[in-house]
Design brief:
Radius of gyration: 23 Å
InterPro entries: A-crystallin/Hsp20_dom, HSP20-like_chaperone
Oligomer: single chain
Strand order of the largest sheet: 1-2-7-6
Protein name: Hsp20/alpha crystallin family protein
Family: Belongs to the small heat shock protein (HSP20) family.
CATH topology of the largest domain: Immunoglobulin-like
Pfam families: HSP20
CATH architecture of the largest domain: Sandwich
Structural class: alpha+beta
């Protein structure tokens, strides 16, 4: 690439990503500044961040969580439950295929889902049906502590 074409490319990149693009290229905050200055990269990053899609539904004594995981097998998913957090990890390999177009997610993901109510220990069930992971857990009844006043 000759210098004239390089300068054209640099100016184009500066116009697309903003004037501070090159100044922050190797900063620790590079990823954040790229996302802030680029609609395309922001959309891509948001897509990865929001995968997988999920719903949390509260009922009286249960909470139900539905997670969309099309194309995943239940053996590809790991669930870890904490008192107020559910961690969903998974992986889908592309097996080094030669893609003409790649629109589905491949790779590893981890999704932390904050639970609306503390879960009752050993009262969680999960089932995978047609690419949707259904999780239900019993809610631990909150018991307030009586505090004496001196």
């Amino acid at each position: 690439m000759d210098n004239e074409k390089l300068m054209q490319w640099l100016n184009l990149a500066k116009n697309v990503y903003g004037s501070e693009f090159w100044e922050t290229l190797f900063d620790e905050d590079f990823n954040r500044s790229m996302l802030k200055n680029s609609y395309v990269n922001h959309s891509i990053h948001q897509g990865i961040q929001s995968f997988p899609s999920y719903d949390v539904i509260e009922e009286d004594s249960y909470v139900n969580i539905l997670i969309d995981l099309p194309g995943f097998d239940r053996n590809d998913i790991d669930l870890t439950a904490h008192k107020t957090m559910l961690v969903v990890k998974g992986s889908r390999k592309s097996n080094d295929l030669q893609f003409y177009h790649k629109g589905r997610f491949y790779g590893d993901f981890e999704k932390n889902i904050r639970l609306p109510k503390p879960l009752k220990e050993n009262h969680m069930q999960a089932k995978m049906i047609n690419g949707v992971l259904y999780i239900a857990y019993a809610v631990e009844e909150e018991q307030g502590e009586t505090i004496p006043i001196d």
